[in-house]
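Late entry, evening session. Most of the bench is empty. Finally got around to the prediction I had been postponing all week. Sequence below, unchanged from the version circulated by S.P.
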Amino acid sequence: MRSGIETSAMDTAVRPQDDLFAHVNGLWLKSSSVPEDRGRWGTFDVLRERAEEHVRTIVEQVAADTPTAPTEGDAAKVGALYSDFMDEATVERLGAGPVLPDLDRVTALRDTSGLPRLLGELARDGVDGVVVPFVNTDDRDPDRYVVYLEQAGLGLPDESYCREPHFEEQRTAYRAHVARMLALVAWPGAEAAADRVMDLETRIAAEHWSKVANRDPVKTYTLLDRAGLAELAPALDWDAWLEGVQAPPGTLNQVVVRQPDHLRNVDRLLGEVGVQAWRDWLAWHLVHRHAPYLSSVFVEENFAFYGRTLSGIPQLRDRWKRGVALVEGALGEAVGRLYVERHFPPYAKERMVELVDNVVEAFRRSFHEVPWMSDATRAEALAKLELFTPKVGYPDTWRDYSALEVVPGDLLGNVKRATAFEVDRDLAKLGGPVDRGEWFMTPQTVNAYYNPGMNEIVFPAAILQPPFFDPDVDDAVNYGGIGAVIGHEIGHGFDDSGSQFDGRGELRDWWTGSDREAFQERADALAAQFDTLETRDAPGKKVNGSLTVGENIGDLGGLTIGHAAYRISLGDQEAPVIDGLTGDQRFFVGWAQVWRGVSRPAEAERLLAVDPHSPVDVRANAPRNLTEFHEAFDTAEGDGMWLAPEQRVRIF
């Protein structure tokens, strides 16, 4: 049987005992470079490119079959939307024209009392305002939906870019970018307007919560009724905002404000900042949001800052790739249905179910054996595990796009209508039963996720391919790849955040005090360990252990439980030696090849600031915490991967 290991990528001059990542991926690293249109390149990106090519074939085929008359049927809508985006001649001819009517509405704003209604109207078109509303299951009552309000208002990646000294260069470039974008639409006094935008966003950012703070599900849960929301932010006319969004009555009767400090701050700024600064700020966000659908001068200026400056990417992605991304964002499941028919055989789903069952069983055994967990907490953990819902490949019921109107020849209008369709679909959930069959990724997405509110793990079809999963290769590599990913996603149900939700998806403290303390001690040790690490793609820049601790716990659990599940799959049989490697060694090599990748320095630095995942080379070397790894490769003190037993973190 084939091992599933890409031996041509391995650098045998590097010992796995010293650097597993470089040993498994070293020759690939020496011979590979980041494509000109990307900030990073690796296993995930290769698979995403493959899925993108498959989707391109689908949409180009349906586009060729699309009539020029108004569209009916999902395939026709896919084709029309893609064709509109690819019609460069029309886009260039229109220039800034499609966005000018909306800018006239901004110019007409006479005072800040009219701002909430306009913010609501533009939110329906996809322009983020001071808050972003979304509907999800209520963390405290998972059998109902509720509106959440998320902080917004910044054009930089997050609040740290607005205040930390080492982002000064990016702030200077951002202010110049805002001025140039406003000048492209002949906004009066673009240079002075950019200064006002920068000042306002700096003041907004002052009360934005950090990404670390936003990971806390208790801190970010403030449930208010309509009167409580008005008391928190009285200057925001919520009735006018709701009318602008075209939300149904009662939408904000119950609302979860995720960052109350932000709303208080915005409320204060409405009284302190003049209407001209708000006009400038709204004009900028309007142009920024719609720039990808305007003429090339907008697209290129937008890319110059967000691509080249922030991520170090030299080249804009091909237009067809951007067109595919638009279609997937607007009609993702319509495309996904066609993708599954062509690229996801039924036997792959059956094989995945077997892997999931073994990983769940490994978790079950682990919970019975965890020494620091009391019987009371153990019983709750096991009950939660029994209630996990796995979803594999694609949804049982496909999304209905019949209410989405796509008008051939109206690109920006179609983008707005697609956003409004999603707004209406989201708000329509309120007051109805929770749809536990809903997916929050499309089948063609190369990723996976855990949803604490529904206590579910979800694996789209596109990730279920080599090197993550191949039903025709040795089990060790499958368990080191997708098996560890399954363990990772289940592990999110028991990480520092997910562990605060029970099996029903309710935010509830089901831990004893001593068990929570024992868990937190291990989580803190893991965070401290990762605080000392840096990625080879941004030398001298450390990982933020507090930001990445949840994903690191997921990786650690995925490795530990994935390996245990592999042992379960063997039964009483001894694993064969393949490619000169034992079964245990192949498991860890399988893990490391999944995280093969390289980033541009600017992109690596940006990700360190905003991404809750550790860099790929750091993730690949996470097995240094597992005694099973040290036994498999016979490591010794002085080896690069060595961690003394007392320094190894083991949670499950």
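Two things to note before I forget:
The domain at 98-294 is CATH 1.10.1380.10 (Neutral endopeptidase; domain 2).
The chain has 24 helices and nine strands.
Will write this up properly tomorrow.
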